[in-house]
Structure formats: structure tokens, C-alpha cells
Amino acid sequence: MKKNALSLVLAVFTGLTAVASTPVDKEVKQVKTTESTVTWKGYKVTGSHHGTIALKEGSLIFEGDKLTGGEFVVDMPTLVSNDLQGEYKGKLEGHLKSDDFFGVEANPTSKLVFTTVKATGKNSYEVNGNLTVKGKTNPVTFDISVYGNKATATMKVDRSLYDVKYGSGSFFDNLGDKTIYDEFDLVVDLVF
């Protein structure tokens, strides 16, 4: 009887060990770039501007139902302003794409790569990543929520870290009401 009980315990333990050591497969889910949106908002002393920019490609990595990674490429020439029209819209978009700001001719893409993902709730995560803009890479931290085949993230980006100096009080004195704040907001809505 003791031999049968010992055999049963060993069998159960061996079975549990095999289950516990079986790795969960990673699943890479491609983002539907035409259904996903990236909205930006920049601030200046006298107000703000907002618009959109398109994703060129992107993916989220899951282990089971848990987010574990991600990587995105932004198509910089698609940067547009949504708060202006006509001549002023064209001037702002041209200026943002120029070397004064994002230099999109020489830097047609920006990239975000997740380095760590930490669950903070049932569908919420804190992500650390590396953001590359104008060839410069800096660490960023932001929150992302995942629900079904959708995800939403918000992020503040300090443009001064990426050599985007125009109108920045961090680089120039006495700008007065011409000052453009260094931080801008990104709101990302993903469909995958």
C-alpha cells in the first residue's frame, strides 16, 4: 500500500513538474496600421496644436493572455495637424517636418521597442522601452491597457532629448510667448 501511495505521489509530482516547466508559447500579434491611430499634442505658451501620425508597422507580443513585448515603427512623413486649415496647416506641417523639428527627410521613421513589461492590473501594464527619434535613442516609460484585440497607451515625450530644439526654453533664452514646451503627448489606439 505504501509503495502504491509513493508511486502515485511521484507520478503526480513528475506530472506537475512537467506542466510547470512547459514554456508558454509567445504569440506575435501584428498591429493593423490602417485601423490604429497615433494622436499627438504639442504645447506652447499661447496654446497648443494637435494632429496624427501613422504607424508604418507594429506588433505586440503575448505569452498566453499577458503582454510581454512590442515594437513599433512610425512613418514620420505622415505627420499632420488637425487643428488648422489651409495655408496655416501647410506651414505648420512643413515646419514640423523640417530640420527645425523632426527632419523627416533624413529621418523618415521613428521606432519604439519595449524592453520590459510589468503587469499593474488585470489589463494594465507599465512598459519601459527605447524610443528612437531623429537617430537618437532614449528610455521611456508609459502605461498601456489591453482589451481583446485593442490596446491604448499614453506617453509624454521630451523632444529636447532628441535634438528637437526649435523654440525650446531648454536651449534658448528670452523666447517669451514664442516658447514651445519640450514635452508633447502621444495617445496611441491600437487594433491587432
UniProtKB/TrEMBL annotation:
Residues in Lipid/polyisoprenoid-binding YceI-like domain copies: 28-191
InterPro entries reported in the protein's UniProt record: Lipid/polyisoprenoid-bd_YceI (IPR007372), TTHA0802/YceI-like_sf (IPR036761)
Keywords per UniProt: Signal
Signal peptide segment: 1-20
Protein name, entry field: YceI family protein
Species, as recorded: Arenibacter arenosicollis
